[in-house]
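Q: Fold this one first, please.
A: Sequence and structure below.
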Amino acid sequence: MTIKKLALEDIQQRLPQLNDWSLRDGKLYRAIQFNTFNAAFGFMTQVALMAEKADHHPEWLNVYNRLEIWLTTHEAGGITERDFSLAHQMNLLLM
C-alpha cells in the first residue's frame, strides 16, 4: 500500500488543530518539558508502544525532562496522515 505525502497546503490547514505542534524542516515538531526525567521517559514508553503497533516511529531527542519530537513518513518523503494521527495520539496522552 502506498502512503501519500500531504501537500503543504493541507498540512498548513490541519496544523492549527494540533495544539503545540509546528512545521520545522519539513516535519511536524513539538517540544515538551516534563517535571521529571521519569515523567518524560514514561511518556516516551507509552508512545513507543503506540508507535510500534502503528509501525510508525517518531524521531526524538530526550535530555533529562525535555523531549523534542519530529514526525515524518520516510517512505512517503514527507508528512502523511500517519504523522498527524500519531501527533494527535501523543496530545491525548498529555491531557
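Q: Good. Now the second chain.
A: Here it is, same layout.
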Amino acid sequence: MDDLVRWLGTQLDADTRRASSLHALECDIHAYLQGDLESVKAAMAMFHEAPGAVCDCGVPARVLRETDAKRRILARLGITLTEAASPDHLVQGPARMALLVMEPVAKDLAAAYADRPGYREEWRP
C-alpha cells in the first residue's frame, strides 16, 4: 500500500508540473501562440509568471485544485494507514476498518493514472 501512495504522489507531482501547459481549446493562450517565435516565447514566459494574465480558460487552475485535493486525500490515507500498521495497534477493530476503507480509496485515485508507467495490475479497483 505504501508503494501505491508513493506512486500516486509522483503522478500528482507530474500533474502539478504540467498544469500550466494544459488549456481548453478555446483558451486565449492559443491566440497568443499564433505569432512569430519571439511573440510565442514572450507569451509563454508571461503565462508562466502570471497564468491569469494570458489564460482565462481555468484549466490550469482546476488541475492544480484537483491535485491539491488528491494530495489531501493521500495525506489522510497515509496517516490512517500508518496508524493501522503501527505495531502498537492490532490490525483489528478501528484499524482494520481503516485499512478496509482506505485501500479502495487509494486504488480509485490511482485508476485515473492507469495508463502511466509504473501502474500495477493489483492496484485496479
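Q: Anything worth noting on the second one?
A: Helices lie at 2-18, 28-32, 37-49, 51-54, 59-85, 93-111.
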